[in-house]
Write a structure and sequence with these properties.
about 140 residues; mainly alpha; about 75% helix
Length: about 140
């Protein structure tokens, strides 16, 4: 029972990870258009970039996501069947009721990475915010 709950917890973390990348990208694009300053927060932007970069590196080096590996191990320990499909293939199957081929999910990863890089160029993170006083004292 514990292993099953831990495996389900890993799935929840995985869903949160995907949500962070997808929704974060949407908010950055909208924020650029709406001129929201908070989208330039360096912690948000750099962790967002690192999240998709991790996925791209897994694709390049043909390694499995560590969350998927942990989930499979826990499911095995729980006596549950373990399939060889990736988390994103299973997620897309359950969300969209269709089997997603690997070329589609991999293409989406690369697309997201390119958009995130483009947003880093168009709306780079601000590393330090200047206050009104600093601006006044320098004049």
């Amino acid at each position: 029972m514990l292993y099953r709950l831990l495996a389900d917890f890993i799935v929840a973390i995985h869903i949160g990870y995907v949500f962070y990348v997808v929704v974060g990208m949407g908010l950055i694009v909208i924020g650029l258009w709406r001129k929201w300053n908070w989208i330039r927060n360096p912690w948000f932007r750099l962790t967002h970039f690192a999240a998709i970069l991790t996925v791209i590196l897994e694709l390049i080096f043909k390694t499995r996501c560590v969350l998927t590996v942990w989930e499979f191990k826990l499911r095995s320990l729980a006596g549950q069947p373990v399939t060889e499909t990736t988390f994103m293939e299973r997620l897309m199957h359950y969300v969209f009721f269709a089997v997603a081929p690997a070329w589609l999910t991999n293409g989406l990863y690369y697309f997201f990475a390119l958009v995130i890089i483009l947003m880093l160029v168009l709306a780079p993170p601000r590393l330090r915010r200047q206050t009104h006083r600093k601006l006044q004292s320098s004049t």
